[in-house]
Amino acid sequence: MASSGAPRRLEPSSPHGVYVWRGGRWAAAGKGELDGDGLYFIYFSNSECGACRVFDEVWYPFVEMVSGRSAARFLVVLCGWFTRDCSSEDAKSLFKEFDVHVSPTVVVMKRSNGRVEKLLKYEGLTSALTLAFAYANVLAGAREAQPG
């Protein structure tokens, strides 16, 4: 927690839902956060996922480090256990829309002119270096990402 009481990271006990990094904290949001053009990093997490707690140690510092220097939007989609245990319709819908069956999963998406121009999906534990590579790859408009 930041000194202001704003959440700097979500906990497994956080309510299921969609969260966006805004103003140095995680704020509850909806799936509409993904409607505009731009670059998105979307972390699909499950509160009952041990590997997600390990990945949290990569994800949250990465977001804090990159967000101040990037126009990318960072989101967390949190359920209990995929769509089987999810009290948020928006979160459940996004798990289905992005076909997420492994956790943690990070989706990197670039939207332009109202359509998805590029979509990269990283399933399982992912390094900060891989996330940085994905960021550079999408910005450069490269054809294919190669996870590291």
Task: Give the helix/strand layout.
Layout: E1 17-22, E2 25-29, E3 38-46, H1 50-67, E4 73-79, H2 89-97, E5 105-112, E6 115-123, H3 128-140
Parallel strand pairs: 3-4
Antiparallel strand pairs: 1-2, 1-4, 3-5, 5-6
Tell me the CATH architecture. Answer: 3-Layer(aba) Sandwich
Structural class: alpha+beta
- Principal-axis shape equals globular
What's the alpha carbon Rg, rounded to whole Å? 14 Å
CATH topology: Glutaredoxin
Average of the residue pLDDT scores: 89
Following the backbone from N to C, one meets helices and strands in this order, namely: EEEHEHEEH
- Contiguous low-pLDDT stretches (5 residues minimum) are 1-6, 142-148
Percentage of residues in helical conformation? 25-40%
Terminal-residue CA separation: 31 Å
Largest sheet: 6 strands, mixed
- CATH superfamily (homologous) name: Glutaredoxin
Question: Strand tally, please?
Answer: 6
What is the number of domains?
Answer: 1
CATH level 1 class label: Alpha Beta
Taken as a percent bin, the fraction of beta residues is 25-35%
Oligomer: single chain
Continuous helix count: 3
Largest sheet strand order: 2-1-4-3-5-6
Question: In summary, what is this structure?
Answer:
It is built from three helices and six strands, in the order E-E-E-H-E-H-E-E-H. The longest helix is centred in the middle third of the chain and has 18 residues, at 50-67.
Describe the structure.
This protein is of the alpha+beta class and 148 residues long. The protein has a single domain (17-140), classed as 3-Layer(aba) Sandwich (Glutaredoxin), CATH 3.40.30.10. Helix content is 27%, strand content 30%. It is built from 3 helices and 6 strands; from the N terminus they run βββαβαββα. It has a 6-stranded mixed beta sheet with strand order 2-1-4-3-5-6. The chain starts with 16 loop residues before the first strand and ends in an 8-residue tail after the last helix. Residues 1-6 and 142-148 have low confidence and may be disordered.
